[in-house]
Amino acid sequence: MKKKVLIVHAHPEPTSLTRGLVEVSVETLQQQGHEVLLSDLYGMQWKAVFDEHDFPFRADPQRLSFVTESGHSYATGQQAPDIASEQRKLLAADAVILQFPLWWFGMPAILKGWVDRVFANRLAYGFKGAGNRYRYGEGGFKGKRALLSVTVGGPANDYSPRGINGPLEQLLFPITHGTLFFPGMDVLPTYAVYGTGGIPAERVAAAKAAWRLRLERLFEDTPIAFRPQNAGDYPDGHELASHVATGQSGLPAHDASTQTALHHQDGGTEIPASLRQSTSELK
Amino acid sequence: MKKKVLIVHAHPEPTSLTRGLVEVSVETLQQQGHEVLLSDLYGMQWKAVFDEHDFPFRADPQRLSFVTESGHSYATGQQAPDIASEQRKLLAADAVILQFPLWWFGMPAILKGWVDRVFANRLAYGFKGAGNRYRYGEGGFKGKRALLSVTVGGPANDYSPRGINGPLEQLLFPITHGTLFFPGMDVLPTYAVYGTGGIPAERVAAAKAAWRLRLERLFEDTPIAFRPQNAGDYPDGHELASHVATGQSGLPAHDASTQTALHHQDGGTEIPASLRQSTSELK
């Protein structure tokens, strides 16, 4: 079935690996009959900095509160045109793919600024003006899928469960969980290419082939099992219930697949709840 | 003893809590006889986007590689003036304090762009042109202290060990460990003020008082016990040795205090190495 897919990408060099993977995205998705929406942030000269110019009609001209002015601008239809345009693309899309080089274990500033400016109050947070009532599995972007495609300079073992940088999926948790799942998107496991400095042509070809397979399964793959706020695991809307992910804490505790995987790796051995800790190596 | 402290901050509203805490920083550090260097990113209209304009003299005019051009520009003294100026401040400083509102569980784009542009190849990574030989405890910023001061909209329990957002120190790991410890800085535990939306005056006063105490101990407090790359814990420079943090994985495994804390919490009980997992709740 024909879907709409928004691709937001952040590398200015047309021959970069990131851009090569973007080309694969466009080609593969179009071949499948999907409609592709593109946000080439460098090409658009996207304004990265969230500032007072984004609020031409202020709720409070005296004091700049981003939360207040973002919600006011969104609710009254007085947003900066580039912000409104990106929101329209997002709202039209069935899936959103962010493609970027990993810089300092996060997004390039131009992409972070896309999030800062486009993910407005009352849309991406404070949904329906109801504070944190709707978040993590519910919110303005519910029903959409999201997927990160990152190019990483360092080798894969630096990002392994006990690798020196930390596991990639944990480093990206502020994006996958905190930015994409927060307003309701179903987030797929990240696609990463490692060791991209001076990457040989055959590895580029292999990376593109693997990415093509991921794209073909964009609407079939199983999302990360992040726990929704309002389905019982967080009775007070803040902390995990004591019977949920018992003995676990930290980032992996918010992925419902973690405990299952733990038991699996341990060959079914029952681990006392008091000893179960975060099981990041299994993500 | 008189020291130099660089404060980099990222909020344009003079009456914001972030800026109020910046004022406390300047006042407190100067009262102690230290010299304060300031980078008011909004005030400076800092260029957030790392792009081709940052490399007026290219090693390869045909194809833009950020790694190549950053290293080339740094090594040949041909950097953009604003980048070189920030590096001079950083290199002069004994400590660096980043003060910012937490936006989408990370830095505002203007501050991420300060890192992207200022943390150059051959200085903050690829030190001495030796790839990853010197990193995590060694590198261009070795011997300096670093400290984050963040203002957070949500309540503290959302960031507790089992809080729905994830523990703050794990969400900030890409910054504390991956950005500041990476080039050699000793990183202190993060200072955070939660629940900043409509924060009452007495809580602002309390937050400023607590921040003042942290500033007064800036050169005495014990840094986070991040494991250095080249002191034995990572024999191959990539992954933890099997005898180090045995049974742990994920982000907390790179903090040497984690295991000790685990034993402490468990009243000295010996936990089988095979069952020891990440102990994020203890951070």
What does this structure look like?
The structure is a homodimer of 283-residue chains. Chain A is α/β, with parallel strands linked by helices. The first copy, chain A, has two domains: 4-216, Rossmann fold (3-Layer(aba) Sandwich), CATH 3.40.50.360; 225-283, no CATH class. Chain A is built from eight helices and six strands. Chain A has helices spanning 17-31, 66-76, 81-92, 109-118, 168-171, 173-181, 201-216, 257-265; strands at residues 4-9, 35-40, 95-101, 145-151, 186-187, 191-193. In chain A, strands 1, 2, 3, 4, 5 and 6 form a six-stranded parallel sheet that branches. In chain A, helix 1 links the parallel strand 1 (4-9) and strand 2. Chain A is globular. The relative contact order of chain A is 0.12. At the A-B interface, helix 4 and helix 6 of A face helix 4 and helix 6 of B.
CATH architecture of the largest domain in chain A: 3-Layer(aba) Sandwich
CATH class of the largest domain in chain A: Alpha Beta
Please give the alpha-carbon distance between the first and last residues of chain A: 31 Å
Enumerate the spans of chain A where pLDDT stays under 50 for 5 or more consecutive residues: 260-283
CATH superfamily of the largest domain in chain A: Flavodoxin domain
Helix content of chain A: 25-40%
Oligomeric assembly: homodimer
Q: What structural class is derived from the secondary structure elements of chain A?
A: alpha/beta
Q: What does the average pLDDT of chain A come to?
A: 92
Work out the largest interface and the residue count of each chain: A-B, 77 and 78 residues
Could you give the count of β-strands of chain A?
6
Task: Name the helix and strand elements of chain A from N-terminus to C-terminus, one letter apiece.
Answer: EHEHHEHEHHEEHH
CATH topology of the largest domain in chain A: Rossmann fold
Given the C-alpha coordinates, what overall shape of chain A results?
A: globular
Largest sheet of chain A: 6 strands, parallel
User: β content of chain A, as a range?
Assistant: 5-15%
Q: If helices are DSSP runs of H or I spanning 4 or more residues, what is the number of helices of chain A?
A: 8
Count of individual domains of chain A:
2
Please give the radius of gyration of chain A in angstroms: 20 Å
